Amino acid sequence: MSGKFRAKSIETNKWVYGYYLYIEETNRHYILTGKLKSYPVDTVHDHLTVQGFEWTEVDGNTVCSIVIDLLNDGDTHEEIYEGDIVEITLTQIEDKLLFERNKIVGYIVYDYTIGIYYLKGNFMKFSEWMYNEYKVIGNVFDNKNMLERIYNVF
Asked: What's the whole-model pTM score?
């Protein structure tokens, strides 16, 4: 896989960002951050180090690909990943009253059968609406209760 990814570090349980690497022989998942790090050459000579790219072992269940890399209003930079909970503000087309709310909330999912990302949530069809703005308000890993309690998505 190529592109930018994020996943939760096994050691710190914090999000790390970079390139994803899966090593099948050991069944381990890593994010290569692109930062340089000093690594010991061996366990006996801990004062001897070599420079290399930082590898962080991550929980494979939390690996998410970047979906959108936005520049909102020419100022604000925002990235949206798989699993992000997104609030979308809608604008109605042709003055049709199709939706009682002007906002929908869902989470980003990748459909491997047809190869597209889509928003999954508890809302009506909104094909006649235009998306004006959207913002990430959480993710399914850190905020499961948000979806279950407020939007009944799961």
From this structure: 0.72
Bridge-based pairing of strands 64-72 and 76-81 is antiparallel
pLDDT in tens, 8-56: 999 999 999 999 999 999 999 999 988 777 766 676 777 776 666 788 9
93 residue type, one letter: I
Buried b (16+ CB within 10 A) or exposed e, 129-142: beeeebebebbbbe
pLDDT band at 75 (very low <50, low <70, confident <90, very high): low
Closest to 118 in 3D by CA, of 106, 109, 127:
109
Instruction: Return the C-alpha torsion angle 58, 77, 82, 23, nearest 10.
Output: -30
Cα 85 to Cα 19: distance, rounded to the nearest angstrom: 22
Pair 121, 140: CB distance under 8 Å: no
Q: Let me know: does 84 contact 70? Beta carbons within 8 Å.
A: no
